[in-house]
Write a structure and sequence with these properties.
It holds the Pfam family ArsA_ATPase. It is built from 13 helices and 13 strands. It is of the alpha/beta class. The chain has an 8-stranded mixed beta sheet, sandwiched between helices. Strands 1-2-3-4-5 form a 5-stranded antiparallel beta sheet, with no helix packed on it. It is globular and about 75 Å long. Bound molecules: adenosine-5'-triphosphate. Adenosine-5'-triphosphate binds next to α2 and β12.
Length: 413
Amino acid sequence: MATTSCCVPSTSTTCSSSFSLRVKRNSNSISFMGSLSFSSNANSLSAGFVSLSIKQNHRPRNNTLQVRSVAAPSEAVAGFDEMVSGTQRKYYMLGGKGGVGKTSCAASLAVKFANSGHPTLVVSTDPAHSLSDSFAQDLTGGQLVPVEGPDCPLFALEINPEKAREEFRSVTQKNGGTGIKDFMDGMGLGMLVEQLGELKLGELLDTPPPGLDEALAISKVIQFLESQEYNMFTRIVFDTAPTGHTLRLLSLPDFLDASIGKILKLRQKITSATSAIKSVFGQEETREDASDKLERLRERMVKVRELFRDKDSTEFVIVTIPTVMAVNESSRLSASLKKENVPVKRLIVNQLLPPSASDCKFCAMKRKDQMRALDIIQGDPELSSLTMIQAPLVDVEIRGVPALKFLGDIVWK
Ligand SMILES: Nc1ncnc2c1ncn2[C@@H]1O[C@H](COP(=O)(O)OP(=O)(O)OP(=O)(O)O)[C@@H](O)[C@H]1O
């Protein structure tokens, strides 16, 4: 291991090059894994990870070693050129374990897109929003708010889950909740009431499962995007809730679609059963309205489902940190996303300690742990095939557009 710089990475001091190397040997190969850093100052901070594997049984006859693979340093790996190219709309969903830096990475990507000429919308579907904190701007209120600073328009939206759930509650209750139950009881159509029980709507609304808020949030975004005035956005970045919510979110549109489908079928049955006396009910028009709303909600759920699986327009970026626990969770997330046919190509390993010449005991231990976690990623069948983007731990709090631009310029290359 060779190092020539200071211990603490800083945005204000200049650190020079360093290189650390670990050698691993097994029955037929020798692997060298190391971190490599070139410089760190206020304008540029770069850290890289190289891995080099030499297969013993692939040695050429003249006995010189053959280099099998050398990963490029992180400067080249994010593939931002591909992410930014084209003017057709693209969706990026950033997700992972709680606290790993999803919001910081999502917000920095949104700033980078906007500064690269894309009118961009960044949306938080995490019920515990932190976009406002990240941009250091009040983005609450459930409406699109312009973010000041970037070259091209950047808007942010924090979905208010309570409001979205309330809207959902009002349309479902008009169609499948107490309104219809009372109505059917009054009409002597009690046998249909049984079918309502199956929908478990009361349960769904009173104790919403993790993922419901997200599904409603995304459906809300789709509703926004359907309108003409939001046609301008060519990049949409989602800052999603922690892993568990995301996984349930994937199956939720199917569940909601089925539930709403049942409500609508039930509504049809009631309509035909009562056709003879339908005119008696003055509120017919209102129920028709609610039925339309419900049908639109259902259509949006179908779109949410399709959106998650559209390889041409959507990508789920997993964010993790170099700890065994976070890596294991990321591996499970990746497996679930792949199983659900959600496109995943990139993995951000955030908060990596940049190399230093004078590691204190704490930093040395931390570095060792991080190297072990990187090792696990390299050997993980779910994660090793993803493009790894390395993001260093920086010594400033990432808050506000300038800080997000700084992070974005390091991460998204
Ligand atoms: N590369 C980094 N260097 C230094 N600090 C970072 C880095 N990435 C994130 N942070 C800090 O870590 C904290 C958590 O980051 P962030 O809010 O982006 O995580 P999150 O995954 O969105 O969290 P949550 O799951 O709670 O929404 C913030 O204070 C952020 O500034």
